[in-house]
Amino acid sequence: MENSFVIQELVKQIDRLGKEVIWPAAIEADEEEKFDRKLFSQLGEIGLLGMVGAEEYGGSNLNYSDYVSVLERLAYYSLPYAVTASVSIMVQKMIEDAGSEAQKKQYLEKLISGEMIGSFALSESHSGSDAAALKTTAKKVSGGFELQGSKMWITSGGLSGVYVVMARTGEKEISAFLVPDGAPGFTLGKKEKKMGWKLSPTRELIFQNCFVSETQLLGKVGEGFKLALSALNKGRVTIGAVAVGLSQMALDLSLAFSKERKQFNTLLNQFQGIQFMLADMATETYAARALVMQAAQALGNPQSSLSQKNASALTALCSMAKLKATDVGMQVTTDAVQIHGGVGYTSEYHVERLMRDAKALQIVEGTNQIQRMVIARNL
Amino acid sequence: MWHFNDEQKSLQKTCREFAAKEIAPKAEHHDQHETFNIEAFKKLGDLGLLGITADPEYGGAGLGALEATIVMEELGRACASTTLSYLAHSILCVNNLDKNGSPEQKAKYLPKLISGEWIGCMGMSEPDQGSDAVGMKTKAEKKGDHYEINGSKMWITNAQYAQVVYLYTRTGKEKKALTTFLVDKGTPGFSVSKSIHKMGMRASPTGELSFQNVKVPISARVGQEGDSIYHMMKNLDLERITIAGISLGIAAACLDQCVKYAQERKQFGVAIGNFQLIQKMVAEMSAETAMMRHFLYSACQEYDSGSKDRLLATQVKLALPKMATKIALDAIQLHGGYGYSREFPLERFMRDAKLMEIGAGTNEVMILILAKQLLKECLVNL
Ligand SMILES: Cc1cc2nc3c(=O)[nH]c(=O)nc-3n(C[C@H](O)[C@H](O)[C@H](O)COP(=O)(O)OP(=O)(O)OC[C@H]3O[C@@H](n4cnc5c(N)ncnc54)[C@H](O)[C@@H]3O)c2cc1C
Ligand SMILES: Cc1cc2nc3c(=O)[nH]c(=O)nc-3n(C[C@H](O)[C@H](O)[C@H](O)COP(=O)(O)OP(=O)(O)OC[C@H]3O[C@@H](n4cnc5c(N)ncnc54)[C@H](O)[C@@H]3O)c2cc1C
Predict the structure, then answer these.
(1) What pLDDT score does B2 carry?
(2) Do A90 and A79 contact (CB within 8 A), yes or no?
(3) Ligand 2 centroid from CA A342, angstroms
């Protein structure tokens, strides 16, 4: 009962921010690639960023299913802000799960309040799907480590206060480091020009003799890849959730448009061709939401220790949620453009942006081909 | 692939080389800045391509749908939006004028349009009349020795650059009472909006035309009053066939890029072309592109043979654009993060590809036309 009240309040706040701040600025933010930093802090103020965070640091320790339902609502108004939040929360959870007391003190409160944004840095120019082939190295030096190499495609690059960087500490050993913004030897590389997610900066990170102290090692030496994979499991469910929010917006815009636009003296929603498209869009969106919810509910129950078999089932379920919801997101946004006809092709009517934004979801946090591999492997 | 004659092969080669040299290198720039590659456009005039189907007497190349489609495919591989502007000019304006205009009108406009000195556009769609274009509201009233035009046209490709509009208007109450006029830029009462911001086809300017008591002489009328519905349909057939050529060009370009990338990009220690999911994407893309090519070229041959079969152009327009969008989406996917980046052309191909499912009649309108033909025995209310 209590939870559902909290959720309702949060959704109300998101609706307010969405209608008053995010949506009216959405077209310009996309065109000018403008990230509203103040808005992100507001997401912390209303409590979204701390939904699954520890209470000690200002979080509200809710279930994943509560979190994804609110995150979905944010994505309804803006996919890129929802992705920024979900990545930052993923970093927050990694620190909470594997970090030292000092690291938690240093970062969690700030990440939960929205004062700080977090980035997750795994991919490199030559290692995307095969993330384990990463080449960035961390050499043990006195008092800490020295990072060499570069990361690519890093969401919130340049905005973040902390970057979880996966680097090689040995031939067969990957470790995770918390690299603060401004660390000596850490610079930002080029900002990617992209099809969508334009307000979210995606950047290259460059490490040249970048010193990080021992205290910035996250978890133990050699644990980095495992940490990254387990974070991605949850991350995939949130990517599914944001895809559902995006689809819902595309559907709502299409419903509204087809109620107003007439051709042949007939409202569009009176044509079967349009009705069936809308029916499929709605059915698929609902199905995707149900699958994402099922995965989120499975995640929200970490106490019940999972047997090996169940762990596999959970991994498969998380990947299914990501795969299905993002494929649906692509189809639904594509249909939304179609239903709008010529105006759907212009930036003024939003749906073309939704379609451009949708495509990245099939690529990030494991491409949908990789999800299929993960699912098959875990069946 | 297709049994082109020598002339067609040489046309294909010329276009491919021209596109690689003059169009492709600037495509990203014009896409990003929403500017028009007017230099390349003018050079298409020097190559003799701006009047590809027009009468040689006026400088045209006198070729058919097949040749026009070859040009669309080859230019479309490099930059679909520059090609769309080329299509609006050479097919929607020049071809229509060449097929339906009087000798005086042709003499006045065609040489300049075909040399590239002037650019042309065609106005059919309106803000409230897109799929139902035949229900258009822009009106032309006969007043003594002239007509007066009032109304507006929406989504007009090349609007801002055009010296002349091939304009469809309504001249009577009956739904099919449509009449065409040639309206010159600068005619009092005729104005053009700023370019519309679009998802794709960004190097092709699109605008709204507005007409307020625009007076045009009777000599600006194309054909007879009220007979335009017939040439409009014939014009649309060629428009639909040739625009599908742009879809083919995009698909072919995607396939080329994917074949190359699948062999170059390594993950898990091997080229990604070793993975069955990548093989599936490339294989399907190649089968679909081949289907598109053969279907389209046979439709062109049919059209050029003077066939009255209107189904073929409609079927082409229904089938190809959808395939191109799917292929372009897969091409992005095959390139992973790089596909999403503007450093590769795939994301542009996809944004451009979507237009063909909307422009020149949407997918749904193609279904409507086919259904009206195929199911006419049972249809009520038509
Ligand atoms: C907008 C955006 C934001 C991003 N944000 C982040 C971020 O914050 N942090 C981060 O670390 N990364 C981020 N990424 C990177 C993203 O995770 C990678 O792009 C993704 O993992 C794919 O890697 P790749 O681009 O190198 O593609 P590749 O791995 O080169 O894949 C190319 C193609 O091969 C396929 N493929 C690869 N291996 C196989 C296989 N074994 N079987 C079948 N098919 C296969 C892929 O599915 C794809 O179709 C982001 C990417 C984008 C586009
Ligand atoms: C970039 C661009 C360039 C263009 N260039 C030109 C040009 O140079 N000259 C020109 O005249 N026009 C041009 N057009 C206009 C184009 O032809 C129209 O956009 C197109 O015909 C669709 O019309 P509409 O946009 O009004 O959509 P609508 O007709 O409003 O359609 C909206 C939706 O309803 C569907 N629909 C409509 N009727 C039915 C029905 N009976 N049954 C089922 N579904 C239906 C449509 O398929 C679509 O999904 C251009 C458009 C674009 C975007």
Answers:
(1) 77
(2) no
(3) 5
Q: In chain B, list all ranges with CATH 2.40.110.10.
A: 122-227
pLDDT on residue A301? 55
Q: What pLDDT, in 10s, does the model give residues A208-241? A: 999 999 999 999 999 999 999 999 999 999 999 9
- CATH numbers and ranges of domains, chain A: 2-116 (1.10.540.10), 119-218 (2.40.110.10), 225-378 (1.20.140.10)
| pTM to 2 decimal places | 0.97
Contact yes or no for A70/A246 (Cβ under 8 A): no
Residues forming CATH 1.20.140.10 domain(s) in chain B: 229-374
A-chain CB neighbours of B125 within 8 Å are: 342
Tell if the CB–CB gap between B347 and A195 is shorter than 8 Å.
yes
Measuring CA to CA, how many Å separate B127 from each of A330, A346, A350, B228?
Answer: 28, 13, 18, 20
Contact A192 B341 (CB under 8 A): yes
CB B105 within 8 A of CB B97: yes
Give the residue from A195, A331, A340, A377 with the most B CB atoms within 10 Å of its CB, the best one to mutate. A195
CA B334 to ligand 1 center in whole angstroms? 9
**Secondary structure (3-state) at B166:** strand
Report the gap between the CA of B175 and the closest CA in chain A (Å): 11
Is the C-alpha dihedral spanning A261, A266, A271, A273 positive or negative?
Answer: negative
Task: Give the residue, by CA position, lying nearest to ligand 1 atom 33.
Answer: B334
Class of domain B6-119: mainly alpha
Closest approach of chain A CAs to the CA of B381, in angstroms? Answer: 13
ipTM of the complex: 0.95
- pLDDT bracket for residue B310 (50, 70, 90): confident
Residues of chain B with Cβ-Cβ distance to A345 below 8 Å are 198-201, 354-355, 358
Residues from chain B contacting residue A274 (CB–CB below 8 Å): 364
Mutation pick from B364, B367, B369, B381 vs chain A, by most beta carbons of A within 10 Å, is: B364
- Output the CA angle B308-B358-B48, nearest 5 degrees: 65
- Min distance B165 CA to chain A CA atoms (Å): 20
Q: Give Cβ neighbours of residue B281 (< 8 Å, ≥ 6 apart).
A: B258, B330, B333, B334
Q: Tokens 């004028």: give the residue.
A: B97
What fold does the segment set B122-227 form as a domain?
Answer: Butyryl-CoA Dehydrogenase, subunit A; domain 2 (2.40.110)
Question: Above 50 in pLDDT, residue A302?
Answer: no
Sole residue written with tokens 């980035």: A119
pLDDT above 90: residue A306: no
Alpha-carbon distances, residue B360 vs A333, B63, B125, B356, B375 (angstroms):
21, 22, 9, 7, 23
Name the residue of A122, A363, A374 to mutate for ligand 1: max ligand atoms within 8 A of Cβ: A363
Residues B121 and B158: their CA atoms lie apart, in Å, by 6
User: Minimum-distance ligand to the CA of B167?
Assistant: 2
Active site (annotated) includes residue B239: yes
Query: What mean pLDDT do residues B258-268 have?
Result: 98
pLDDT in the model for residue A305: 47
Asked whether A346 lines ligand 2 (CB < 6 A), one says no
Mean pLDDT, chain B, whole residue set: 97
Q: How confident is the model at residue A304 (pLDDT cuts 50, 70, 90)?
A: very low
For A363, the closest of B135, B337, B355 (CB atoms) is B337
Fold of the CATH domain B229-374: Butyryl-CoA Dehydrogenase, subunit A; domain 3 (1.20.140)
Cβ-Cβ contacts under 8 Å between A and B: the total is 120
Provide, as residue numbers in chain A, all residues whose Cβ is less than 8 Å from the Cβ of B364.
271, 273-274, 338
Domain with CATH 1.10.540.10 in chain B: 6-119
pLDDT band at residue A1 using 50, 70 and 90 as cut-offs: very low
Res. A158: pLDDT tops 90: yes
